[in-house]
Amino acid sequence: MTRLHIAILLIVSLFAFQTAAAETWRSESQGDFVFITAYEGDRLQGEFTAFTVDYVPGESLEVSVDLEGADMGDDDMNDVLKGSEWFNVSQFGDATYTASTFETLDNGTVVAKGELTLKGVTAGVDVPLMVTSNGDDGRLSGSLKIDRTRFNVGEGDWSSDAFFPLEVDVEFNIAIKKAQ
């Protein structure tokens, strides 16, 4: 074998090892995925009940949220939330987040730098994550603020902060498992 063949073999072996070493973690609607806002100063909390998360540490994060599963604990509020001025579920049934760039901060927080697509609008959003694992079980947790008006959530009379704040808090604590 020539040195070139040996070098190519080493590169291919290293790539195969890195690919095999990448572990995919997955969740399907396991854990808490909440959004918090206020109406005329009174705190309101809702949750996303149907979502999937696929996470490959340092490589990719993919989150898909079924907006039909948004629940604020009140049928009338849920109907309004799913309507055209808010999530417009009939036209945009899912919200997605994808990231392939990650930064690890000194405190251990991993910041996913990706794009959120919500209500037909795609924009960059950084998501801070705390990742913990124990064997085949793990957790992704964190919180962030999202300006709802960047995604046309709360249109028409709801586009100002007269009744609802422009920023919505999103908090998550999601159980993940190594994919087999």
Describe the structure.
With 180 residues, the chain is an alpha+beta fold. It is 15% helix and 51% strand. It has an eight-stranded antiparallel barrel. It is globular and about 45 Å long.
How many helix segments?
2
Radius of gyration: 20 Å
Q: Span from first to last CA? A: 37 Å
Low-confidence stretches: 4-20
The H-and-E topology, N to C, reads as HEEEEEEHEEEEE
Instruction: Tell me the major beta sheet.
Output: 8 strands, antiparallel, barrel
Structural class: alpha+beta
Biggest sheet strand order reads: 1-4-5-7-8-9-10-11
Features:
180 residues, alpha+beta, 11 strands, globular
Secondary structure topology:
Layout: H1 3-21, E1 25-28, E2 31-39, E3 42-48, E4 51-56, E5 60-66, E6 70-71, H2 75-82, E7 94-104, E8 110-118, E9 121-134, E10 137-147, E11 167-178
Antiparallel strand pairs: 1-4, 1-11, 2-3, 2-11, 3-6, 4-5, 5-7, 7-8, 8-9, 9-10, 10-11
